[in-house]
């Protein structure tokens, strides 16, 4: 017996559809998370090639503190105080200047958000502020290893289950299904490899975009085809005859 998405039991369709809907919402939230993290790397809202370069290669002409003070944090301090903070960072963040000049500015302008009770760096501590004042070399090797292994395991499971559901589609040629289920894994490896390559050279930033876009397109293609065949394509019996029965029969109480 050949199993097809359109001929699966009603309960199986509900299960598969529920999974696909939750994963689609999760994918959308992940895109928002990228927009609000990497998308602010250059100090401007919106994801760009510069954001990717700054996230992985870094902005080696200045510090993270300077980038933020000239970007989204610019309205929170007057020009004179911003100049003092930036100059302090460029001078190597000396502690004696911090105690005399920088600490009062930080306590007045920054610590209401940058404190131990938030997810932001705690600027009550000199060490954390100094870390932000160092030259930005992008993602660390440790963070790349951590994020790479999480993505290799987690995203692989997501695409495996989406691919299993898609394999039951009957309206797609078998060779095309084989290509479609393999593409997310190829683009996933491309995406992760591009992080490491961009860490070495900013010229590989475009590869990050290509890998992420490829995964997204593969996901959307399999998602639409699977949902379409489960709920829109007519049901057929074993002889190939279209069945006109309604799913409402599953919802009627049995006596």
**Unreliable segments (pLDDT under 50, ≥5 consecutive)?**
244-251
Shape by Cα distribution: elongated
The run of helices and strands is HHHHHHHHHEEH
Helix percentage range: 55-70%
Write structural notes for this entry:
The protein has two domains: 136 residues; 73 residues, no CATH class. 63% of the residues lie in helices and 2% in strands. The chain is built from ten helices and two strands; from the N terminus they run H-H-H-H-H-H-H-H-H-E-E-H. A two-stranded antiparallel sheet has the order 1-2. Strand 1 and strand 2 form a beta hairpin. Keywords: Membrane, Transmembrane, Transmembrane helix. It comes from Methylomarinovum caldicuralii. This is Elongation factor-1 alpha.
